[in-house]
């Protein structure tokens, strides 16, 4: 075995160990099991899994924060946080259309994107700024720059990140509706 192959093997083992240490949660046997996962969304029209919506962030850097409590346990997170440097490009996770550009106290500068088939809303929050010329109704292509990472709203200014959520929509349901599903498995599928 060459030194390069050996070094690559060691690096892979270290990455696996880091993943297990920081991302795997062990639950005691007496804790009730998690609810059943949501039904699979029909994704035949997609080209594959969702694109990680922050430029340069690999799947190995993601942590599933969907089930974590927020506001002192008063509400579920219903999203994942993707940590990144302020100003890093936020990309469209899939094809779709800008449904709403909105400012909220909690989410700060936000973007709601409806999927091409209308069945999903992708929610991007705590944005520092929108891409130049971005407007409601605009068609987006997967990977297109839509904004930059920030810490607007109730985000900690010292921890800029993208709050990314996916909601399943009923026909005709407004941009602020829907049922939250965990985006993590949609971002890390291979």
Automatic annotation (TrEMBL):
PANTHER family: CELL DIVISION PROTEIN YTFB, PEPTIDASE-RELATED. This is M23 family metallopeptidase. SUPFAM superfamilies: Duplicated hybrid motif (SSF51261). Keywords: Hydrolase, Metal-binding, Metalloprotease, Protease, Signal, Zinc. Its cofactor is Zn(2+). Residues 1-22 form the signal peptide. Residues 76-168 form the M23ase beta-sheet core domain. One of its GO terms (molecular function) is metal ion binding. CDD domains: M23_peptidase. One of its GO terms (biological process) is proteolysis. Pfam families: Peptidase_M23 (PF01551).
